């Protein structure tokens, strides 16, 4: 008996909005996806030798990943903060003032939201308000 095969090519398009405002990354999503999800996708493709996939990284996403690479290198080599509260703390630069500590906590809560499946939950008015409230005032009206 002859079975017909259906050839399938997976096409993944990776993109992230610009999360940087006034030299501060306001959302951790780009680097969180870069250190976990993008490499996980590659591992899934590699696990199936006959798999075929096209993975496209938008130019804007590549710029952000390259910027993070530069910021992390600078942080590790000179201890200079990079403008991302979580990465700075992971590099040993813990905040001293109350406002800076609060910014770090907010960043961690956003990172938790990203990894806890919040994208699958319906967005509530309070969540929208909370996220916008935590953005720097100059960035609140920008598309994120």
Question: Would you give an account of this structure?
Answer:
- This protein is 50% helix and 10% strand.
- Strand 2 (20-21) and strand 3 (24-25) form a beta hairpin.
- The chain is elongated.
- It is mostly helical and 144 residues long.
- The chain has one domain (10-139).
- It contains 5 helices and 4 strands, in the order βββαβαααα.
Question: What is the structure about, briefly put?
Answer:
Helices cover 50% and strands 10% of the residues. With 144 residues, the chain is mainly α.
Layout of helices and strands:
Blueprint: E1 10-14, E2 20-21, E3 24-25, H1 29-47, E4 53-57, H2 59-78, H3 85-90, H4 98-115, H5 125-133
Parallel strand pairs: 1-4
Antiparallel strand pairs: 2-3
- Give me the strand/helix succession: EEEHEHHHH
End-to-end CA span: 54 Å
Number of helices: 5
Structural class of the helix and strand makeup? Answer: mainly alpha
What distinguishing features does this structure have?
two-stranded parallel sheet; 10% strand; single chain; elongated; 144 residues; mainly alpha; 5 helices
